[in-house]
Amino acid sequence: MVSRLEVHDDDLDSRAREVLREIIIEHVATGEAISSRSLSKCGRFQLSPASLRNVMADLEDLGYLQQPHTSAGRIPTDRGYRFFIDYLMKSRVLTQREREAIDDEVAHGNEIEEVLHLASRVISRLSDQVGVVFMPTLLQFAIRSMDFVLVAENRIMCVIVGTNGVVVNKIIETRLQFTRDELEKISRYITVEFAGLTLDTIRRRLVRMTEDERAQHDRLLQKTIALGIDAVNDVTPVEHELVVEGATSILTKPEFADAAALRKTFLALQEKEKLVEILNSCLTEDALQILIGSESDYTQVHNFSIVARPYGTSASPLGIVGIIGPMRMEYARVAPLVDYLGLALSRKIEEKEQQQ
Amino acid sequence: MVSRLEVHDDDLDSRAREVLREIIIEHVATGEAISSRSLSKCGRFQLSPASLRNVMADLEDLGYLQQPHTSAGRIPTDRGYRFFIDYLMKSRVLTQREREAIDDEVAHGNEIEEVLHLASRVISRLSDQVGVVFMPTLLQFAIRSMDFVLVAENRIMCVIVGTNGVVVNKIIETRLQFTRDELEKISRYITVEFAGLTLDTIRRRLVRMTEDERAQHDRLLQKTIALGIDAVNDVTPVEHELVVEGATSILTKPEFADAAALRKTFLALQEKEKLVEILNSCLTEDALQILIGSESDYTQVHNFSIVARPYGTSASPLGIVGIIGPMRMEYARVAPLVDYLGLALSRKIEEKEQQQ
DNA sequence: GTTAGCACTCAAAGCGCCGGAGTGCTAGCC
DNA sequence: GGCTAGCACTCCGGCGCTTTGAGTGCTAAC
């Protein structure tokens, strides 16, 4: 599915590299196809349009550039962008302001859903692209405490705090009835007994306990086990959490000027399963990743690029943050933003972990 | 701001009414301007195009119809829609399927935010318009219980259950530190002391208690008061909850065929303050309300209509559900949907209340 | 009151034309 | 051998023109 285009550093001599670089920067800035004449006039090359045309023709032969039609300038191909990102791009350093904006948002998050939304929104705003935040299953989630609060006799709110400070909460419908007293006891019992373990382990232990002899006689223990199992099952749903924010950012991009393109793009952003699939594949490596157009099924169809990065501890990544946008985007500006957001989230989680 | 267009039942004779009715139904179905010829062919009138043209000319003079240009058919004005809704429309009866879909979603909601989202989504899906759900401030919200759960030493999750069964939860950051034990005591105290009162009353009482002599000496009571006030303040924020879902439904509507219109519309839906203002004005009457185009500032600019209805008990409405769409919509189908959703929500809340 | 007929209007679609931007190629220059 | 001026070629896009067809308003006759 995800197969990066193969480009090699020594495919191009230094002049061709500079030309490719300039074309991409210029095209990203204007959205127009770049002509030999405008390149010549930009002043960075002491060459006539005719000479630049030769270089450009070579770059086209190698698959880095293409012409929308015969009498137009050149635009980068996805292969061109790939070369740019791998060898030519100089990542911009974030401004104080950008770092503060990200730090602020991350500091504010409390519950996990809130954090996902804030992160997605801030990255969307800063990058002016569509923000995407993804949290895979919580089965590997180690807990610090698990509390149960009475909502109605057979509706219980479960609040789980992870060792990483992340909070998840969910209301559970149950056939059994509970009193406040019982719930307090159950909360204590489960927290003492299972703190530090992952939800997956906890569920397995609870299931095993069902057969335990003690559980046959102890009514409260039975209820504890039943409630615990319900809780774990309810907070680790099959559908992963995927938050997509700032879809309106694409409204102003010239590549989506016509209604049909807009329509297609909005619908594409709705296909969350596809997105989840791709983002999941980004989880393998603990570093910023950029996917361009044809490098995956999803991005190919829509000429999207994805800039994404896992967050959480490198040992157990918690999820992925990133952005989706047209292939034509300022990678040098967006990449460090995504990277910093990932780092900030990871750092926050690590701090909480140590606090404990 | 909200001023319904004035139309009178006896403005039109029965033939004109039938013609207006047919034109609106036909135009809503096709999106096209309706010509005298197509009307004549539809079979409901035993009249030639020429005769119908006379009727149509009259309807135009009275402001119920308009022509996009000289040689086009007629389309309804907002005044025309208003007459249709007030006097001509026969609301469709909901199908079993639609009622079940709504009932199911309403039954599933637990926390208040979840409910808002589910309701907004289901009404958007069924009506194929943009779903809007609005919950005004919770200050009038009477509580059944208030529980506090330890998340970290200075981060507490507060879970409030209303007498109407609605659940709100929020994490509170506090300077004071709390132990599990203390929180259990505080939860009990507040629940026992304040059950049945509104958040507004509770806050006022807590503030008054600050000056109480006992509070000067009792450390735990001090902490209780501080935490209680924080909790009430945190769950009744200034910005009201407004959930807008299904914005993509407008993608397929012909009135938004061109990119500029799409863009404008999406941006309009982002202006939540304006929307809140209008929806708030719908709270006064405990019935379904339909706002058409020029009947409010907001809808005028964008040629929108709003179909909305309060929910909650008639004594204290909790919020508003509704949809936003182009003026050209199937009011006869959408109106009963919105109405039923409002009823279902109200009914659910009432049930919970009685359960108690 | 109804209708057939006719003149009129106007949007939308089709067509041809031209200009401009940009390229590829070739031949000549350093 | 690399660079560049010049030229022929291509193609998009805009402009103006005409045609078509849908629909109306009006008038006169039934």
What would you note in describing this structure?
Two copies of one chain form a homodimer. With 356 residues, chain A is α+β, with helices and mostly antiparallel strands. Chain A has 14 helices and ten strands. Chain A has helices at residues 14-30, 36-41, 49-61, 78-88, 96-108, 112-127, 180-194, 199-211, 213-217, 219-235, 259-270, 272-281, 297-302, 331-355, and strands spanning 65-66, 75-76, 130-135, 143-152, 155-162, 167-173, 241-245, 289-292, 304-312, 317-326. Chain A has a five-stranded antiparallel β-sheet with strand order 7-3-10-9-8, sandwiched between helices. The first copy, chain A, has a three-stranded antiparallel β-sheet with strand order 4-5-6. In chain A, helix 1 crosses helix 3 (49-61), helix 5 packs antiparallel against helix 6 and helix 5 packs across helix 14 (331-355). Chain A starts with 13 loop residues before the first helix and ends with a helix. Chain B binds a DNA duplex (30 and 30 nucleotides) through helix 3.
